[in-house]
Amino acid sequence: MGLFSGLFHKDAAAPEAPAAPKPLTVVAPVDGAYKPVEEVPDETFAAKILGDGFGVTPTSGTVVAPVSGTVTTVADAKHAVGITTEGGVEVLVHIGVDTVQLKGAPFDMLVAAGQKVTAGKPIERVDVQAVKDAGKPTDVIVVFTNPDAIASLDLDASGTVAAGQTVGTMTVK
């Protein structure tokens, strides 16, 4: 040890704590009137049996991804899309209520299972008037179906929203 070795000696760096998870942005899936999931016209969704979320009564027919991730499911009747985020949160986008009975007629799916999607980018088009004419509620419902993977979900929108507009944030465990 030299005379100045104590001045220039570096202690072993303490291991860095893992970075806190970055909140993920959640966006409106369609233009329209935002509502808490408890107010959607379907008892199963409103009771949060499938998970927490929200709905939008649409004023347009272009549905966008509410989160970024991978499309994991596309319903045969084209009325629902499942997306899984990079952090493993499963998100269901359900278009209308009892619209499975329409057998895909008013829907034009723009994505396929296995495809990566970005929040705010179109995933489907729906003929909203055809859904109304069939006597079905048109609400686009977004539900986070595996709440155990979510550390926090803050949905703070209200009133009229635009497709792709931020409606809240989610932090993954």
Provide key terms for this protein:
mainly beta, 173 residues, globular
Which sequence of SSEs, written as H and E, runs from N to C? HEEHEEEEEEEEHEEEE
Radius of gyration from CA coordinates: 21 Å
In total, the number of strands is: 14
Q: Supply the helix-strand structural class.
A: mainly beta
Helix count from the secondary structure assignment: 3
Shape: globular
Please give the largest β-sheet: 8 strands, antiparallel
**Residue fraction in strands:** 35-45%
Strand order of the largest sheet: 9-5-6-7-11-3-2-13
Distance between the termini: 48 Å
The stretches of 5 or more residues where confidence is low (pLDDT under 50) are: none
Task: Calculate the mean pLDDT score and round it.
Answer: 92
Instruction: Give helix % range.
Output: under 10%
Structure description:
The mean pLDDT is 92. With 173 residues, the protein is mainly β. The strands form three sheets. Strands 9-5-6-7-11-3-2-13 form an eight-stranded antiparallel β-sheet, with no helix packed on it. The termini are far apart. It is globular and about 60 Å long. Helix content is 8%, strand content 38%. It contains three helices and 14 strands.
List the helices and strands and how they pair.
Elements: H1 5-8, E1 24-27, E2 32-36, H2 43-46, E3 52-58, E4 62-64, E5 69-74, E6 80-84, E7 90-95, E8 107-109, E9 116-117, E10 122-126, H3 128-133, E11 140-144, E12 150-155, E13 160-161, E14 166-172
